[in-house]
Amino acid sequence: MEQQLKKLMAEAEEALARAEDLDELNGIRVRFLGKNGLLTGVLRGMSKLSAEERPRVGRLANEIREKIEDTLARRAAEIKEKVKTARLEAEKIDVTLPGTPFLTGSKHPLTAIQEEIEDIFLGMGYSIEEGPEIELDYYNFEALNLPKDHPARDMQDSFFVGPEMLLRTHTSPVQVRTMERTVPALPVRVIAPGRVYRRDDDATHSPMFNQVEGFAIDKRVTLGDLKGTLQVFAEKMFGRQTRTRFRPSYFPFTEPSAEMDISCGMCGGKGCRVCSYTGWLEILGCGMIHPRVLEVSGYDPEEVTGFAFGMGVERIAMLKYDINDMRVLFDNDLRFLKQF
Q: How far, rounded to the nearest angstrom, does the alpha carbon of residue 135 sit from its chain's CA centroid?
């Protein structure tokens, strides 16, 4: 029996030395030390031994069990360390390499410009109002002194979506809606930013663009108040050195009406390619609110006056950032957008 135990020990050592993973070690443990393992099978024959042999064989069996268990534990530790080392080698990171930068977004230039316009007028006591983009013909034209078949409607090629509904061509309808809601309160100072739609599409026009309408109503509001307000706006948007000029123009909903120019920021008003060598850049339209518009909205034109202006956000962005084609603002080209 002693020879059987020694042979069993040799087999166990050989099997443990060849084991490559923990599952294989567990199989060896069950094979040699399990309830029905080889060592147990040998020990069952101890009943046939003499009284003198049993203690010696028992001690040898215990020594073999302890050696197998110790070897199992040692091999298990070795295999775990080997697996850990292999995993660390496979997953190692070179900490000296530059890290992967986080891509951070930024505001679209049109969003930034619109928010800057809003901030300027909020600082002058104006509030912000919004209105529907699908508008009634009444608010888009008739209430703004543009009755049906009026030739001035041709100035705004429109997208009609029904007999009396269209995509608004300007944010001026918000002016009428606001006055109807606030009458007879005074003073009223409002800007109305939003998307508008016209059938234009070239380097300086888009079928969809953003506009900011502004107006103020009170007793004794004058053209001088309009000019002073827009001068402050121009200086805050383009710099204190900016000069303005007003040229007579025509809008059905204002009288008198004007186009406002600013001095060219590229040449300081001396004349260059950007301003077509005139020294001036057109920026917006404005004027005193037409008495009929006041009357339709519920205000008495004999008691109150007001001024209004409208500017394209894209136009302001193109002037401020020297962009020569409006379409790049809508192309979603990251090479362009990352400049801002």
A: 29
Domain boundaries, the chain: 2-90, 109-337
Give the pair of three-digit tokens for residue 7. Answer: 């042979």
Superfamily of domain 109-337: Bira Bifunctional Protein; Domain 2 (3.30.930.10)
In one-letter notation, the amino acid at residue 323 is I
DSSP 91-122: T---TTSPPPPP------HHHHHHHHHHHHHH
Nearest residue to 315 (alpha-carbon basis) of 270, 272, 262: 262
Give the C-alpha separation, 176 to 213, whole Å: 11
H or E element at residue 218: strand 208-218
- In this predicted model, what pLDDT tens digit does every residue of 191-213 receive, in sequence order? 999 999 988 777 667 889 999 99
Bridge partners (DSSP) of residue 218 are 305
Torsion of CA 260, 263, 269, 271, to 10 degrees: -60
pLDDT band at 44 (very low <50, low <70, confident <90, very high): low
On whether the CB atoms of residues 25 and 75 are closer than 8 A, the answer is: yes
